[in-house]
Amino acid sequence: MTSLTIETPHGPARAELHCAEEGFAVLLLGHGAGGGVAAKDLVAVARAAHAVGVHVALVEQPYRVAGRRAPAPARQLDAAWLAVAEELAERFDDLPQVFGGRSSGARVACRTASAGQAFAVLCLAFPEHPPGKPERTRQPELDAVEVPTLVVQGESDPFGRPEAGPHHEVVVIPGTHALDSDLDALTRITSEWLSRVLRPLE
């Protein structure tokens, strides 16, 4: 594992790199609004990706690196994410990138997929709406993604459940927003999806 500090327009971000022996793609994973890259679902998915030959970067946003818990505005999160993606593209010789993350990190991955030319998007616990407020849907962020996308959602997630669409599939597993009730299922689903989506690159 290598820890890399990357300058962004909103302060330094940190990327924890887990390099596969002969990686043919890079998975960038972002954390939730109040959590970090040690979340159980992120760690499980990172291991699953590494096992199928994908480099992994667990990305810590600048506000977390600076020790703040309250998330930065969306435009700052997106700009910082794209700066990290650009730096990692150079580091990994422009290998195809999969953008991903949990909760807030999943939203960032969706919003930046086009600008960052992501090959695919992986969303863990996409927050479809704030708890108890289904009218404040974030579905348009997901619908705007035009590359293959997987959403893994807990069946009792208070943040709701996104609808599937032409470019994204939604898989429901036991658990809540934390997605830590069935890590074996999460590992299996994400590794199978990554292998299938990235097969043309091998």
In short:
By secondary structure, this protein is an alpha/beta fold. The protein is 32% helix and 24% strand.
Q: What key attributes describe this structure?
A:
202 residues, alpha/beta, Rossmann fold, 8-stranded mixed beta sheet, 8 strands
If you had to describe this structure to a student in words, what would you say it looks like?
Keywords: Hydrolase. Pfam families: Abhydrolase_11 (PF20408). GO terms for molecular function: hydrolase activity. InterPro entries: AB_hydrolase_fold, KANL3/Tex30_Abhydrolase, NSL3/Tex30. There is one protein chain. The protein is of the alpha/beta class and 202 residues long. The protein has six helices and eight strands, in the order βββαβααβαβαββα. The protein has an eight-stranded mixed beta sheet with strand order 1-2-4-3-5-6-7-8, with helices on both faces. Strand 6 (120-124), helix 5 and strand 7 (149-154) form a beta-alpha-beta unit. It is globular. The model has no long low-confidence stretch (mean pLDDT 95).
CATH fold descriptor:
Rossmann fold
* Ends apart, CA distance between termini: 23 Å
Structural class: alpha/beta
Q: What's the CATH architecture name?
A: 3-Layer(aba) Sandwich
Topology of helices and strands:
Blueprint: E1 2-8, E2 11-18, E3 26-30, H1 40-51, E4 55-60, H2 62-65, H3 74-91, E5 97-102, H4 104-112, E6 120-124, H5 139-143, E7 149-154, E8 168-173, H6 183-198
Parallel strand pairs: 3-4, 3-5, 5-6, 6-7, 7-8
Antiparallel strand pairs: 1-2, 2-4
Helix pairs in contact: 1-6, 3-4
